[in-house]
Structures are given as C-alpha cells and as structure tokens.
Amino acid sequence: MASRIATVIGNGESRKDFDIKTTNLIGMTVGCNAVYRDMTPNFLVCADRKMINELLEAKDNKVPCPLYTRPQWLKSFPKHKFLEVPELPYEGQERIDDPFHWGTGQFATLVALSNGHGGWLGRKAQTVFLLGFDLYGVGKGQKLHNNIYKDTENYWDANRHAVPHHYWEYQMSKIFECYPNVNFFQVNAEGWKIPKDWGQWSNFNFITLDEYSEFITEFQQQKILKDKEAIINDLKKRI
Hints:
eight-stranded parallel β-sheet, 8 strands, 6 helices, alpha/beta
C-alpha cells in the first residue's frame, strides 16, 4: 500500500468503539465537526457555522488546527484565519452538484486530497481511509439518525429521522471518479452495504474496522523497525 496515507474521520456510529487517536500514527488526519472533542486532527472541517462557534467557545477562542469552512461563513469570523473549503473537482448543473449542498464529510475528503503532510515533500495522499462514513440510518429499518454525537450540543436528538443518504452517496462517487490515482478505503462493520455507485470504481475498496485497526498496528511496527534500521545505518557510517 502507498505510504502517503490520509484518514478522514466522519461521525457515523460505526466508529464508536474505535480509538480515533490511533489514526494519527499512519499519516494525515482530517476531522469532521465535533471530532475536535475527542482528538486534534491535522485539519478540521466545519461546514456548519454553529460548530465553529462551539469550537471557539470550548477552546477559549483558539483553534487547535487549521480549520476549513464554507466561504459564506468566513466573514463571520474576521479575526480568525479560517480556510475556504476546496472547490469541487467537477462541474454539474443539478442541485446535488451545488457546493452549498455538499456536506462536511465530502469537503473533508477534498481537504485530505488537497493538502500535503510531513515527510511527503509537497506531494498529496495516495491512499485515503474513510472512517465513520456510515451513510445509512440506525435502528429498525435504518430509520433513525446515525451520528456518534447525537443528543449533544448542536446535534439532533437520537429519535430524529435518518438523513437521506443519496446526496452523500452520489458526491462521494464523484470524488472517486475524479481522483482515479488515489485508492479509497471505506472502513466499516463487516456486512456494510456497499453502494452500487461506489463499487463501480476500481480505486474503491472496503475493509472492516478490525482490518483497519490491524493495519495501523502493523504500519506502526514497520515504521519503528525502519526507524531503528536507519539509526543503525547512521551509526555504522560514523564508525
């Protein structure tokens, strides 16, 4: 697997037992909205203005990492150097193609694709893991709101109806299409239903949460071994 790795952390309930802090061990991390409550990612994306207000209040008017938001909200925070979410990588004429109808998760994926990371020498991600991108609702018939932060400030109640997922499904499919040289891995529970639109792309892959956790462990072990080997080689040169 390519070494330039990014993880985009959404807020689906599939990740509720996953330690998201471990994602920092393998490369770039991009968090969505309230992810900041549980970890500090390399980048944070808040498409909703109320989430920015919450963050500033919680962090004493300071932002722990670069923050991206919609261009419409930038003027509301003139004292902060927030960044504008990336432009869409394609042009479309339908409502579903309007950037204002793109959600935080989709923009966070574009942020992961638009930025470099330490040691990448200005290059972009080759592999992107999508964690907590559940799409579907929860409960009987998948009819209820699916979000790990439900029943908390700025989030809907647990009994709220599920958000229709066809926009998210279509928009992520467009990203897969527009970045054919990037490998995308949907991380979710075994048996998660892969949308037909996603499965058509050769650069789309699915792995379970356990497989992703094992990958992080193995990646870190290999990194430690590589670092040790580099140290030993450096010592040999000095002898």
